Amino acid sequence: MRPHLSPALEAIAQRRGEPVRILLCDDHQLLVEALSTVLRRRGDEVVATVSPEQAVVLAAEQQPDVCVMDRSFPDGQDGIAAIPALRAVSPATDILLLTGNADAAGARAAVQAGARGFLRKDEPLQVILAAIDTTAAGAMIVIDASILRPPAPRREPPLAAPLTSREQDVLERLVRGESTRAMARSMQISYSTARTHSQNLLAKLGVHSQLEAAAFAMRRGLVCGAPDRASSRYSSGS
Q1: Prediction pTM value
Q2: Which of 98, 106, 110, 88 is nearest to 27 (CA)?
Q3: pLDDT for 235
Q4: How confident is the model at residue 154 (pLDDT cuts 50, 70, 90)?
């Protein structure tokens, strides 16, 4: 999705009163050469590197207005991880992160780390240039505002049906770590009956094992207390 640049920000990008000092940190040579050539032709000052670690060193020395940072590097370095260090040595530098994969988690991580923008590398060159100018003006580049929102909290599905008193008893015993055979003895019922109660309980909770049932019960507050045996083992057929 194309980043949204408002008319006001476009005007800021076009009113270029002085050269912008730009630090490029990307291992894609063709992209760096294309950006460097265009930026220098229009009068900007450009320094390039292929390493986030070196970018931090250069930022401390050069104090650039903008750092255009790649997200992923062949040696495993992460551009997002370098943002706090870069901002620490050059607080006035605004950072625009470039990426081949504009996922929501990455966008939120970049902004939380201190980036001004998060942009896909396959955007047209003019869009990237406008994003650099807008970043230099201190404005945020938004690809899609929705991806910066935190994910909605998970909601547990409702129970398929209310638990019977016997199923509630079975659930509490599962949380305490009792096996199906142990439940049968303590409840004075047959193993097959205990197993039937357990299977009916799993179906109502919408889970597939006794371990999942115990975790579900604790998460939803369906039982009081906690397991009293740390070494308890669960399995759907125990």
Answers
A1: 0.55
A2: 98
A3: 38
A4: low
